[in-house]
Write a structure and sequence with these properties.
The chain is α/β, with parallel strands linked by helices and 383 residues long. 37% of the residues lie in helices and 22% in strands. The chain folds into two domains: 222 residues, FAD/NAD(P)-binding domain (3-Layer(bba) Sandwich); 100 residues, D-Amino Acid Oxidase, Chain A, domain 2 (2-Layer Sandwich), CATH 3.30.9.60. It contains twelve helices and 19 strands. It has a seven-stranded mixed sheet, sandwiched between helices. α1 links the parallel β1 and β2. α2 crosses α10 and α10 runs antiparallel to α11. InterPro entries: FAD-bd (IPR002938), FAD/NAD-bd_sf (IPR036188).
Length: 383
């Protein structure tokens, strides 16, 4: 085994994918530095078998299990009148859930707590990456003035990745669905338990034509909601939160009163516009030495199959294993570059499969198949 393999690795972005990567590498004595602009995330992640493998590889499986909720697997699909057309309830003795639910903020905290001291640098907004002449290295510059030279830069910086243009000219595409993310505080939820009962322990989705409403109960009792509808303008929702909620409600006229009440009771100071974008199914690029992508930066997809978090952390694990394999075989930087290129091919193939399913489900929404059509798709997935 080589003891001299010590590549300088920079990871841009502190979401689950970047944090899994830094943790798996660290557990195998390969140092990496993660640069985070200190954005907070509070959406949720459902992790299937591939995501669970990443938690084990990152050394946080026991902590993950303690903080995940098997009952969060409960899923309802409803029509706009509130009629349940699909209902999945995990068995009471579900000791080995296939897709345990965990709040993304908790997942991020678990991974941050496990990362080696000093490996995560907050307040480092990425500005630029410049190839170092005559080498495969990159000089990185951050908004706070910090500069560093690395052998590998990994773009884990999400949908609007600043690293992606280094390897790909492809731009993300607006899919024709826009809307908002809102939430109901735990206190408000506790005062309206009848609404919580309608949602259930996990997630409830309502669909009518190209209009979609999702409500999810977080571990702390907060209800997080997403409302999407068709619009040619991704920014049609008013930027003023006070105007945004009435605007959203106007798109859900005729829906069940309790569904509209979920939106009415949302915190008016926490309304976030959420137009949906995606990369083409099968997005790939010609490998470029010293740079690669993971997560949404690599394979941004819409949420209609619930696989984004799974693929992101799975890909991060695969990239880490490729780099670890180079060290274990006595390789150097050239071998690492070849391993990264192989990772891009393998991860790209897997992401293409999941992105295809997501696109099919998205088109069900856009084509107005309604709740029954989506329920049938869920039954097929469930087997």
């Amino acid at each position: 085994m080589s003891t001299t393999f010590s590549p300088r690795i920079a990871i841009i972005g502190g979401g689950p994918a970047g944090l899994v990567l830094v943790n798996v590498l660290a557990r195998n004595n390969i140092a990496a530095t993660l640069y985070e602009r200190d954005a907070e995330f509070s959406s949720r992640a459902h992790l299937g078998e591939t995501g669970q493998a990443a938690m084990k590889g990152a050394g946080v499986w026991e902590t993950f299990q303690k903080n995940s909720r098997p009952e969060g697997e409960e899923t309802k699909m409803l029509d706009k009148d509130g009629n349940v057309v699909y209902h999945h309830v995990p068995p009471p003795d579900n000791t080995s859930p296939s897709r345990p639910e965990i709040d993304r903020s908790m997942l991020r905290k678990i991974l941050l707590d496990a990362a080696p001291a000093g490996s995560v640098k907050f307040g480092h907004a990425f500005v630029s990456a410049t190839p170092v002449t005559g080498t495969a290295q990159w000089e990185l510059v951050f908004a706070n003035g910090h500069k560093t030279v690395v052998d590998l830069v990994v773009g884990a910086d999400g949908a609007h990745s600043r690293i992606r243009p280094l390897v790909s000219d492809v731009r993300i595409r607006y899919v024709g669905l826009t809307g908002v993310e809102v939430s109901m505080s735990p206190d408000v939820g506790a005062a309206h338990k009848e609404l919580l009962a309608r949602i259930g322990s996990g997630s409830a989705y309502a669909l009518d034509g190209p209009k979609f409403l999702a409500a999810q109960i977080n571990g702390d009792g907060r209800v997080r909601m997403y409302a999407w509808f068709h619009s040619d303008d991704p920014d049609v929702v008013p930027s003023d939160p006070a105007a945004a909620i009435p605007f959203i409600l106007s798109h859900y006229e005729g829906w069940a009163p309790w569904m509209r009440q979920l939106i009415e009771l949302a915190d008016p100071q926490a309304v976030y516009r959420r137009p949906l974008y995606m990369l083409p199914v099968g997005h790939s690029w010609t490998h470029r030495a010293g740079v690669t992508l993971v997560g949404d930066a690599m394979n941004l997809m819409t949420p209609f199959a619930g696989q984004g978090a799974n693929i992101a952390v799975w890909a991060a694990l695969q990239l880490a294993l490729k780099i670890i394999g180079v060290r274990e075989s006595g390789g150097g930087l050239q071998e690492m570059d070849a391993a990264v290129a192989a990772y891009e091919q393998e991860a790209g193939k897997r992401a293409k499969e999941e992105a295809f399913v997501t696109e099919v489900n998205m088109n069900r929404v856009l084509n107005g198949e309604g709740a029954q059509g989506m329920a049938e798709a869920l039954r097929l997935i469930e087997g």
